[in-house]
Here is the input.
Amino acid sequence: MDTNDDIIRMIAKHMLEADTIIFFTGAGTSVHSGILDFRSEGGLWEKYDLFEVATISAFRRNPEKVWEFFRIIYEDFQPVEPNKGHHAITEIQQIKGGDKVHIATQNIDGLHQKSGSINVYELHGNPDIMHCIRCSHEEQMNYEKHIKPDKYPLCPKCENPLKPKVILFGEPLDMDVYNSALRVANRSEIAVGVATSLEVFPAANILLSPPPTTKKALFNLTPTLYNGQLDYYVEGDIIETLPILAKILKELNKK
Ligand SMILES: [Zn+2]
Here is the structure.
């Protein structure tokens, strides 16, 4: 049986030869930055009723209550910093050249960009933008103006409650963002899943649906239901395994 290091070396060799690479990152990527995976034990869904705070119908019904939850999320996200996993992906992008490495993320914490990565597709939205679900007005999030007051912010055009531009349950993905990421995945020589259980669709299609010409790898703590569809699986903590991948790629790239 191959050890993790052997598998990581094979993935690095594919990356060395690839013209296009896509990473697909999930909630576990940010756990070491202090952001809880909502679904895991001790996660936010043990403390809050999903249907009361994180669905689009709850927002329409009771924006006051949903905004109480948003304020907690914004306060949790304020001080977080990227971890070794984010930095390893940024390093790989710098080794290969920014235009060759793309990152589709299910996270809304902005940590890939904060670590210096570019070409990031935010499948589940961007909390730095406020938008109006009635008239589509958008504006940049301002903490003092939108988050700090006890009363939720209103759209300056139609006075509907403003909402962070993140995808709530029951809301469709931004199909332009999703389709752009999927097109990149389909022409990538290798797609690499990071710390994701592959349970949220359609997002998980970014890793699972490309043709066999795209090698599929996953770095995760535990196997997923879809491991049979992968070419490579590296089990372990991504803050340990991804830096090894970056290091091997760097060595191969020098030769
Ligand atoms: Zn409006």
Notes: The chain has eleven helices and nine strands.
